[in-house]
Every structure is written in C-alpha cells, then in structure tokens.
C-alpha cells in the first residue's frame, strides 16, 4: 500500500502541474490527468507540429485574452483532454475538475445527440475539387457554478450556461500503433 502511494505521488509530480496542485490530487485524479496528458502528447505528436519559436509562444498568450472564451480539446468520444485554465472565469469549474472527464457529464442531456454528431467525422465521398467540411459551430448548455455575483456554488446546484462552440475536427492516423522503439503503443480510445 505504501509503495502504491509512493508511485502515485511520483506520478503526480511528473505531471505538468504546479506543485501545490499535484500534491493534493487523489489517486483517481492522478490517473485521469495522466491519461489526458498522454492523449494530448499523442495528439501533438501525431500532428507533426514544429516546436514554436519565441514569437509564436508570446503570441499564444494573447489568443485567450482576445478569444473571450476558453479552449477545449475533445476526443471523438467526448473526453476533455485539454481545457485552458481560464475556463474557471467563464464556468466556475477549474481546469483540473474538467480535464479527463467526459463532456457529456457537464452538458445538458438534450444536447448530447447534437454533440455526438458534431464530434463525428464522416468519411464519405466528396465532390471532385471540394474538401470535406471539418468546421463546427453549434450551441450547447454546460454546467456553470458561477452565481450572478461572481461567486462559485456547489456543482449539484449548478445552472446551465449556453455556449457557442466553434472549431474544427482533426483526424489523425490511429492505425500506427507501433512506437519508435518497436513496442506496441497502448490503446488511446
């Protein structure tokens, strides 16, 4: 039992989180955040993104300010693998409370069907000369724990806030399940 606690402690401190956050995580949260972190890393590796230079990194901090919203990255099954830390300002929920959970746990049940449709990429025939539309724009109701006075309330008392979600779908090759060292990669579903 003590060895298990030691392993979870070490794993928590390997996550890219502030020390005061990682030292207060329970075991389930450590696993949830670790899995999300690995999925984001896989997503970034699959996209063959170049390392940003200094100027791009400085510009990125201004995007969230200009956005008047927050950034959320979802898997095709609705898992929130990344949420910008300013989500708290808009929803009252923290980045750590949401990361690794299903978006369906925080959205109105009447919006689930549309949400699933938005997360689906259709591999159909496309007319010659046209690309498949990966753009998405839709409204959904999400749990909000902010009161009208800016205070936060318990999640069980949360109200629904209408969000306008815009973005696009990226499809990556998931067939390559061999790592660079030749071992099979674990499934990331």
Automatic annotation (TrEMBL):
Q: Which Gene3D superfamilies does the UniProt entry name for this protein?
A: PAS domain
Q: Name one GO cellular component term.
A: nucleus
Q: Which GO terms describe its biological process?
A: cellular response to hypoxia
The answer to whether the entry has keyword Transcription regulation is: yes
Q: Which molecular function GO terms apply here?
A: DNA-binding transcription factor activity, RNA polymerase II-specific; protein dimerization activity; RNA polymerase II transcription regulatory region sequence-specific DNA binding
Q: Which UniProt key words apply to this protein?
A: Nucleus, Repeat, Transcription, Transcription regulation
Q: Where in the cell is it found?
A: Nucleus
**Domain PAS intervals:** 64-129
Domain named BHLH: which ranges? 1-41
Q: What is this protein called?
A: Hypoxia-inducible factor 1 alpha
| Source organism per UniProt | Ovis aries
């Amino acid at each position: 039992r003590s060895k298990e606690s030691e392993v979870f402690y070490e794993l928590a401190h390997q996550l890219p989180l502030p020390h005061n956050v990682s030292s207060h995580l329970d075991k389930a949260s450590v696993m949830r955040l670790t899995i999300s972190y690995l999925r984001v890393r896989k997503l970034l590796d699959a996209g063959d993104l170049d390392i940003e230079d200094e100027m791009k990194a400085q510009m990125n901090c201004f995007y969230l300010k200009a956005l008047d919203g927050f950034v959320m990255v979802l898997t095709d099954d609705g898992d929130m693998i990344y949420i910008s830390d300013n989500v708290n300002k808009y929803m009252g929920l923290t980045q750590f409370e949401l990361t690794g959970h299903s978006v369906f746990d925080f959205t109105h049940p009447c919006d689930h069907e549309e949400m699933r449709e938005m997360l689906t990429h259709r591999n159909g025939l496309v007319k010659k000369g046209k690309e498949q539309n990966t753009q998405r724009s839709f409204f959904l109701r999400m749990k909000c724990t902010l009161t009208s006075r800016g205070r936060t309330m318990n999640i069980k008392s949360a109200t629904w806030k209408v969000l306008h979600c815009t973005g696009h779908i990226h499809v990556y090759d998931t067939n390559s399940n061999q790592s660079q060292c030749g071992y099979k990669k674990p499934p990331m579903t």
